Amino acid sequence: MLFSLSSKYMSRGLKLVFSASVAALLSAAAVAAETPHAEGLTPNAPQVFAIGQLPVSNSMILSWIVALVIIFVARAATRDIKENPAGLQNFVEWVVESVRDFLESVIGRALTAQTFWFFATAFLFILFTNWFGLVPGVGTVGWGTPDAAGHLHHISRPLLRGANADLNMTFAMSIVFFGAWIYWALKANGPLGLLTHIFGPRGDSKGGMKLLLIVVFFCVGILELVSIVFRPVSLSFRLYGNIFAGETMLESMANLVPALAPLIPVPFYFLELLVGFVQALVFTLLTAVFTLLICDHGDGHHEEAGHQETKH
Amino acid sequence: MNIPTNLAEISGNLHIGLAALASAVAVGLIGAKASEAVGRNPGAATPILIQAILSSALAEGIVFFAIFLAK
């Protein structure tokens, strides 16, 4: 083991992903040991050290750093709140108000007041973890095994790694959303209302047609139930896949022409800045729309009031 | 160079290639239609952006299902 700086990666691309994807899916909490001949980015986050029985991976360290930074900035900005905000308080207010205005335009004022804590936290946390993963040094400082000649070609255990390039992180966020979604849905509809929302027939028809529609909509409800159960899976894989693919692409681009290694990835860094923002937006938007779909039904007058409000 | 033998050589990750192809076409269609819609009605740019991002996210989700879930 040698502690050293190295940016020389050989990327075998997605072949690594296939072999270990099921293992990564199943071991939600476990951190697998480093693979002996891994080149490029490993699909699972390597363990850096352990606290007792708890393995600590490099993704966990990065997510803790980002969380601490967000908490510290929020505390520093709100320590001495002034009537006319200036400096840090002004900036943080601008960020929070922008997110709130955006959410209100998507899911309405009442639902935003109820669910702002989750969506704003998810958006800001995903955004800053994505961008922090792009800082030079993340993924290139760490431990590796030198070859016979003593050259270190590959870092098998980086000290830091993009937190969303680890399926555990994205799956944990999706599961938290799933729990919150069930709570909000039950609160808005009640247990019986939730069941009729999923399985109940829509539209008004009478007689035999109504009986037929009940059967049809029951089958639709089963399909909807399957899609609801698959939402955490698709949410977590979408975020993980995008960020992991982005980091793999940056490494491949650095290896494309060894002489131009520092130059070629630069345009892709800008692409990854954009992808990091868009994926944070997509996660927030999808979860917000899922919540809107289940909560904004049943009380028609409230929905109409919301529409009138947006028209003015 | 007979075709059946060459076809038999295609193996492994064909499903990912097909999924990537299809979702690339889907994302392209969504982007084209979204640009067209903004061109027709520039005032509705924000709602169209939301719709476009949502549908492209759903379309590209197919690739991740193909990569990670199908074996």
Report a brief summary of the structure.
The complex is a heterodimer of chains A (312) and B (71). Chain A is mainly alpha-helical.
Describe this structure in words.
- The complex is a heterodimer of chains A (312) and B (71).
- Chain A has 312 residues and is mostly helical.
- Chain A contains eight helices and five strands, in the order E-H-E-E-H-H-H-E-E-H-H-H-H.
- In chain A, the strands form two sheets. A three-stranded antiparallel sheet of chain A has the order 1-4-5, with no helix packed on it. A two-stranded antiparallel sheet of chain A has the order 2-3.
- Chain A starts with a strand and ends with a helix.
- Mean pLDDT of chain A is 78; it is low at 1-38 and 298-312.
- Helix content of chain B is 83%, strand content 0%.
- Chain B is built from three helices and no strands.
- Chain B has helices spanning 3-9, 14-40, 45-69.
- In chain B, helix 2 (14-40) packs antiparallel against helix 3.
- Classes of the chains: A mainly alpha (312), B mainly alpha (71).
- Chain A binds chain B through residues 14, 17-18, 21-22, 25, 105-106, 233-234, 237-238, 240-241, 278, 281-282, 285-286, 289, and chain B through 13, 16, 46, 50, 53-54, 57, 60-61, 63-65, 67-69, 71.
Tags for this model:
heterodimer; A: 312 residues; mainly alpha; two-stranded antiparallel ribbon; 8 helices; globular; disordered N terminus; B: 71 residues
Q: Most extensive chain contact?
A: A-B, 20 and 16 residues
Helix content of chain B: over 70%
Shape of chain B: elongated
What Rg of chain A, in angstroms, do the CA atoms define?
A: 24 Å
Shape of chain A: globular
Contiguous low-pLDDT stretches of chain A (5 residues minimum) are 1-38, 298-312
Average pLDDT over all residues of chain A: 78
Number of helices of chain A: 8
Instruction: Give the SSE order of chain B as H and E letters.
Output: HHH
